[in-house]
Design a protein that fits this description.
alpha/beta; GMP Synthetase, Chain A, domain 3; four-stranded mixed β-sheet; 18 strands
């Protein structure tokens, strides 16, 4: 039994994750290559390796003839009898080839064939390993800056964090551990090229999936996400279990879950809202923390007109329009925001159609507290009200429900 070869194959299989069968094939091909270099031909060369003992046999198939014309393909009858006692002219017999007889060049070529196959398989294994992680997050170690790009050690391979995928203002130190999102894995002659990102919205989504158990098991579902990397993210979530609060599950006890993600994102603010199939309600949630007077949503045109109190206009639009911009990306609606004063002068908002209901809403808000939310149903033209804790149980109001 060839113990040394067996041990070498075991080590390669364990460390490089290259199957033994692939290595056996590489050895067979290397011996055939060596024979071709040594004899000039390899068409009649056969190599057999015992997969259990690693013992190998290299032989040439030669035809028995009376007079040899090609030593590589033929053998004399007298020489054939020394190998096989019952050999006859015209028979094909196996003539063993001693690999020790190979010259230095043939041996070196055989070695190169094996090494080349090992390198190819190693690159293939690494490519497949990281290709499976494409569109997922991994933890990497910052190595060095390459111009404006950053080299990230991902374990068995290095990833490239391009300048366009870096969050503005983030500065990393060598050996620092960070989480990155794998954008793309390319197979190149020099090995896999892995492109990673710190700005992609899916990075936030994957972080929540890893942190929040309810998202991982499907109880809570992330329906939409909009992000301006380094500044703010808005995320809409829905619970598939009526007993589970989707927003509460993502926030965690005393904000523990969301805070760990905020820390990983270097202080990026995260707004988590409840998903609603009603576009009006969804837009109202998306514009939080601003209070909304009314929402007119057109599902066909994917546009929405929003009215907010005068003092809430700046909050609804946000700094440099960020809140409204993220809300538009989150909902997929083009949102036009106006204050009450502006809406009165804009007939397109049909502000006058809901003023009576809004005044009635103000009366209830004053009587029962501020925990009153208005939902405007554009199809019926009526306003419905939801009362939370302030309205006594069992009481009803016109146009509203408890």
């Amino acid at each position: 039994m060839n113990k040394e070869l067996m041990e070498a194959l075991d080590i390669l299989e364990k460390e490089k994750e290259i199957s033994k069968e692939t290595l056996f094939e590489a050895i067979e091909n290397s011996l055939i290559t060596a024979c071709k270099n040594h004899f000039g031909k390899s068409d009649n060369i056969r190599v057999e390796i015992d997969r259990e003992t690693c013992d190998f046999l290299c032989y040439a198939e030669k035809e028995v003839v009376d007079e040899v014309e090609d030593e590589c393909l033929q053998i004399t009858y007298e020489d054939a009898l020394k190998i096989k006692a019952d050999a006859e002219v015209g028979d094909i017999i196996h003539v063993e080839i001693k690999s020790k007889e190979f010259g230095r060049i043939a041996t070196q070529n055989a070695k190169n064939v094996i090494l080349q196959k090992i390198r190819e398989e190693e690159r293939s294994v690494i490519y497949n390993q990281y290709f499976e992680k494409e569109k997922d997050i991994v933890t990497g170690i910052v190595q060095r800056y390459i111009g404006r790009n950053i080299s990230i050690n991902l374990g068995k391979a290095d990833g490239i964090l391009n300048e366009s995928e870096q969050v503005k203002g983030e500065i990393f130190s060598p050996t620092e551990r960070i989480k990155v999102y794998i954008l793309e894995v390319k197979n190149t002659p020099r090995g896999p090229r892995i492109l990673v990102s710190r700005t992609h919205p899916e990075l936030v989504k994957r972080l929540f999936e890893a942190e929040v158990t309810e998202i991982k098991d499907g109880t809570v579902e992330i329906m939409s996400i909009a992000r301006e990397a380094g500044s703010r993210t808005k995320m809409a979530v829905k619970s598939n279990n009526p007993n589970v609060d989707a927003v509460g599950a993502c926030v965690g006890l005393n904000g523990a879950r969301v805070n760990s993600i905020v820390d990983e994102l270097r202080g990026e603010k995260i707004d988590i809202i409840n998903w609603d199939e009603n576009p009006g309600n969804l837009i109202q949630n998306a514009l939080s923390p601003a209070k909304i007077v009314a929402v007119f949503a057109d599902p066909d045109e994917r546009t929405a007109k929003v009215v907010v109190p005068d003092y809430q206009l700046s909050l609804a639009i946000g700094k440099e329009g960020q809140n409204a911009r993220l809300a538009a990306r989150l909902t997929g609606y083009k949102i036009d925001i106006k204050s009450e004063t502006q809406a009165k002068d804009a007939p397109g908002f049909r502000y006058e159609d809901y003023m009576d209901e809004y005044e009635e809403y103000d009366d209830y808000e004053e009587e029962y507290g501020e925990d009153v939310q208005e939902e405007y149903d554009e199809e019926s033209g009526e306003a419905a009200y939801e009362y939370e804790d302030e309205l006594p149980v069992g009481e009803e109001a016109d146009g509203g429900e408890v």
